[in-house]
Amino acid sequence: MEDDFCFWDDLANPKLGLNLFPERQQIQQKNINQNHIMYKYSDLKWIKSVTREKGASWAYIEFKLGDTFDLNFSKNPKWYPTNYEKAMPGDLMVLFQTLKSSPNFRGGTFITHLVTPLDNYIGKIPDSNHPYLRLVGVVGIPKNNLPLDLNWSLLKANRGQICIVDTLESKLGSKTISQKQNFLFELFNIDNNLITEINNVNDDVDEGLEEGADKSKYKLHKFKERKPELIAKAKAVAKKENRLFCEVCNFNFEIEYPMIGSGFIECHHRFPISTGGLRKTKIEDLALVCSNCHRMLHRKYINGNYLLVEELRELILNKMSDIR
Questions:
Q1: Cα–Cα distance for residue pair 321/324, rounded to 1 Å
Q2: How many CA atoms lie within 13 A of 76 on its CB side?
Q3: Lowest mean pLDDT among 8-12, 177-181, 243-247, 316-320
Q4: Residue 323 pLDDT class (50, 70, 90 cuts)
């Protein structure tokens, strides 16, 4: 089976031999504005080992530069429940994993991601060996596919918990924390734009929105709706199918605002704000809505939840039935 990063004979035998991170050669320095976040090596404060199938396959390898995902933590009472709270938004954390050798794979310890927590919210999955979750964003990917230099050891950090950078050991003599931070930082190609763009989403925040996790998820939700190429495709498909109108109330800008309203519609991500996280957005994930309905979809209903497109449509239809 082939995926974006490597070929697999099966889940237990990942093979190197091609670029695990094809986008590493495509990173471009973007214009830096006043609100642009620029990470430096001193921001790198944490190390965490991750694993899947006890080292038989890659963990989180499907997530690329600019993606976000829920990072799992064990329920081992020796370290938790507070260990997963250590890293703060803006702190950089190196993820690494030790993979077993196989006939087609040499194994070793691999640095895979440089991430940062996006908020302080702690999610929980019931009845799981790794029930605690932190939403993190990928801000760095390794410059090469090679295992960690054998002159360095992460043995003391290899327990799944968040560890301080000083846990990294050098076999070439004592190193300062700054030297260790710099060594790890230089292993990555860094892209600061994900966090900058999410932080810059601050328009039309619901006045009833709570601070903290709620606000963070709202920003992530709005960020998902700002995909110009995908939005253009969604509109083009809708126009071709003669359905360039609001999926909630059927409002048609072109009819109500001749000429100036032609081709205008807003896009709303169908997944509720409460889910948080960023997944790869597809055209079918976007609903075409008018400005008023879009605003209502971003407000909590009386039960404290955000309405789905279908639920808001039903609310309007029920109201119209009552009037009749």
A1: 5
A2: 11
A3: 8-12
A4: low
**What is the spatial distance between Cα 162 and Cα 83, in angstroms, rounded to a whole number?**
6
- What are phi and psi for residue 188, nearest 5 degrees? -115, 150
How far is Cα 274 from Cα 271, in angstroms, rounded to an integer?
Answer: 8
200 vs 191, residue with greater confidence: 191
- C-alpha to C-alpha distance for 156 and 234, rounded to whole angstroms: 49
Dihedral through CA 70, CA 88, CA 269, CA 201, nearest 10? -160
**pLDDT classification of 192: cutoffs 50, 70, 90:** confident
The b-or-e profile of 109-146 (16+ CB within 10 A means b, else e) is bbbbbbbbbbbeebbeeeeeeebbbbbbbbbbbbeeee
CA distances, 249 to each of 79, 224, 309 (Å): 51, 23, 10
pLDDT of residue 245: 94
% of the chain at pLDDT higher than 70: 70
Contact at 8 Å (CB) between 103 and 10?
no
263 by Cβ neighbours in 10 Å (0-12 / 13-18 / 19+) ranks as exposed
Q: What are the phi and psi torsion angles at 107 (to 5°)?
A: 70, -175
Residue 319 CA, chain-centre distance (Å), reads 38
Long-range CB contacts (within 8 A, 24+) of 201-206: 201/226, 204/295, 204/298, 206/298, 206/299, 206/300
* Closest to 141 (Cα-Cα) out of 173, 185, 108: 185
Structure confidence by residue, pLDDT tens digits, 124-163: 777 777 778 888 889 999 999 889 999 999 988 867 788 9
Q: Which two tokens stand for residue 71?
A: 């990072």
Helix locations, 159-301, DSSP H? 177-185, 193-199, 213-224, 228-240, 253-256, 291-297
Report how far residue 202's alpha carbon sits from residue 57's, in angstroms, rounded to the nearest whole number.
39
Say how many CA atoms lie within 13 Å of 80 toward its Cβ: 19
